[in-house]
C-alpha cells in the first residue's frame, strides 16, 4: 500500500481493481468447481448443493486470495507500470498482511451471500407452507361438499322440476345459498357462531329435502353467544357425520340437536359446542357405514393447530339413556376476529 500512496488516483484504482478481479474470479471458479465435484460425488438422486460449505469455502478463499493477489499484482504492474512487491518476493510479515488484506473482503462477501441464500431458502419454505395450507383448506372444502349429497340433491331437483316447480325452485335457491356461503366461509380464519349456525341451517334445509320428516333438527344458540368467534364450518363435519352414520341408517330417522353454551366461569370458561343425534348409536353402526373418518380427523387437526391442548373433541354415546351419539367440542372463548397475515 505504501507503493500506491504516491501514485495518481486512476493508476492506483486500476491496480487495485486488477487484484480484486483476479481474487474474486479465482475464488468463484474454485467454489463452483468444488460444488460441482460434491454434486457429482453425491449423484443425481441426492439433494444438489448450491455451495461447497464453509470448510471447502475457506480453502477456496485462502488459495484464491493468495493466487489472485499475485496474478492481480502482475496484471496491474503490466497495465499501470506501478512496481509493487508481490507475495512471493515479500517477507513473511508483509506477505501475511497481503493475504489477509485480500482474504477479509472475500470472507465478508461470502458471509453476505450465504446469509442471503439462506434467507431466500427460508422464504421458499414459507411459501411452500402457505401453499400446503391452501391445499389443506381445499381438501377441507372438498370434504364438506360431500359428493353423494350433491348428486342426490340434484337428482331430487330434477324430479321436482316436473312434479313441483315451486318446491324445486326453493330447493335450487337453498343449494345456491349453501354453496355460495360455504365458499365464502372457507376463505376466513374465523367467523361468528351466528354465521356458523346460519350455514348449518342452509345445509339442514337441503338434507330435509332428501330425508323429509325423518330428519328433525333443532338449533340452540343463545343471543349473548352469537358474536363469539370460531373456526368456520367446524360443526358441519359433525352434523354430516351424525346424519350419515346415525340418522340415515335408521328407518325412523331421529332428532338432531345442535347447541352452543359456556362451560365454567371466569378465566376457566370455555365454549362448548354439541351435536346430539337420536340415530342408531355408535355401537350399532355397520362397518360399511364407518367411512374414512376424514371429516372427524379434520376437526381434531384444526382444533389442535389453532388452539393446541386448550381445545378438545369427543364423540361418545349419549349419556341420557337414549339411542344415538354426542359429539362435543370445547375451545377457548374468542370475542374478536384474529388479524390475518398480510
Keywords:
342 residues, alpha+beta, Heat Shock Protein 90, 2 domains, two-stranded antiparallel ribbon, 9 helices
Commentary on this structure:
This protein is an alpha+beta fold and 342 residues long. It folds into two domains: 2-135, no CATH class; 145-331, 2-Layer Sandwich (Heat Shock Protein 90). Helix content is 60%, strand content 12%. The protein has helices spanning 2-5, 9-42, 54-80, 92-144, 147-163, 165-186, 193-211, 234-247, 294-307; strands at 191-192, 215-220, 229-230, 254-263, 270-277, 312-317, 325-331. The strands form two sheets. It has a five-stranded mixed beta sheet, with helices on one face. The longest helix has 53 residues, at 92-144. It is elongated, with a radius of gyration of 35 Å. The relative contact order is 0.07.
CATH topology of the largest domain: Heat Shock Protein 90
Overall strand count: 7
As a percent range, the share of helical residues equals 55-70%
Structural Rg = 35 Å
Instruction: Characterize the overall form.
Output: elongated
Could you give me the name of the CATH homologous superfamily of the largest domain?
Histidine kinase-like ATPase, C-terminal domain
The average pLDDT is 79
What series of H and E elements makes up the topology?
A: HHHHHHEHEEHEEHEE
Strand content: 5-15%
Output the strand order for the largest sheet: 2-4-5-7-6
Helix/strand class: alpha+beta
Amino acid at each position: 500500500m505504501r507503493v500506491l500512496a504516491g501514485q495518481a488516483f486512476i493508476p492506483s484504482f486500476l491496480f487495485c481493481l486488477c487484484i480484486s478481479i483476479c481474487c474474486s474470479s479465482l475464488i468463484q471458479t474454485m467454489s463452483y468447481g468444488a460444488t460441482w465435484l460434491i454434486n457429482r460425488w453425491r449423484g443425481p438422486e441426492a439433494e444438489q448443493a448450491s455451495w461447497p460449505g464453509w470448510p471447502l469455502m475457506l480453502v477456496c478463499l485462502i488459495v484464491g486470495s493468495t493466487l489472485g493477489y499475485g496474478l492481480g499484482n502482475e496484471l496491474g504492474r503490466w497495465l499501470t507500470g506501478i512496481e509493487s512487491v508481490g507475495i512471493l518476493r515479500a517477507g513473511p510479515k508483509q506477505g501475511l498482511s497481503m493475504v489477509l488484506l485480500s482474504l477479509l473482503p472475500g470472507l465478508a462477501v461470502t458471509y453476505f451471500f450465504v446469509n442471503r441464500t439462506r434467507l431466500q431458502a427460508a422464504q421458499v419454505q414459507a411459501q411452500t407452507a402457505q401453499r400446503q395450507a391452501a391445499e389443506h383448506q381445499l381438501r377441507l372444502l372438498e370434504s364438506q361438499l360431500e359428493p353423494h349429497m350433491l348428486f342426490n340433491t340434484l337428482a331430487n331437483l330434477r324430479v321436482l322440476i316436473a312434479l313441483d316447480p315451486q318446491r324445486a325452485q326453493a330447493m335450487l335457491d337453498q343449494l345456491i345459498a349453501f354453496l355460495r356461503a360455504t365458499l365464502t366461509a372457507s376463505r376466513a380464519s374465523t367467523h361468528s357462531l351466528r354465521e356458523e349456525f346460519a350455514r348449518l341451517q342452509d345445509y339442514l334445509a337441503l338434507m330435509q329435502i332428501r330425508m323429509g320428516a325423518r330428519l328433525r333438527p333443532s338449533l340452540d344458540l343463545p343471543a349473548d353467544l352469537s358474536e363469539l368467534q370460531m373456526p368456520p364450518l367446524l360443526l358441519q363435519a359433525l352434523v354430516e357425520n351424525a346424519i350419515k352414520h346415525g340418522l340415515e341408517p335408521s328407518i325412523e330417522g331421529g332428532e338432531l340437536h345442535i347447541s352452543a353454551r359456556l362451560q365454567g366461569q371466569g378465566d376457566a370458561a370455555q365454549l362448548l359446542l354439541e351435536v346430539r343425534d337420536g340415530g342408531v348409536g355408535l355401537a350399532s353402526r355397520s362397518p360399511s357405514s364407518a367411512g374414512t373418518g376424514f371429516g372427524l380427523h379434520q376437526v381434531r387437526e384444526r382444533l389442535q393447530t389453532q388452539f393446541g391442548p386448550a381445545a378438545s373433541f369427543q364423540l361418545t354415546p349419549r349419556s341420557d339413556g337414549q339411542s344415538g351419539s354426542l359429539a362435543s367440542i370445547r375451545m377457548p372463548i374468542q370475542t374478536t376476529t384474529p388479524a390475518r397475515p398480510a
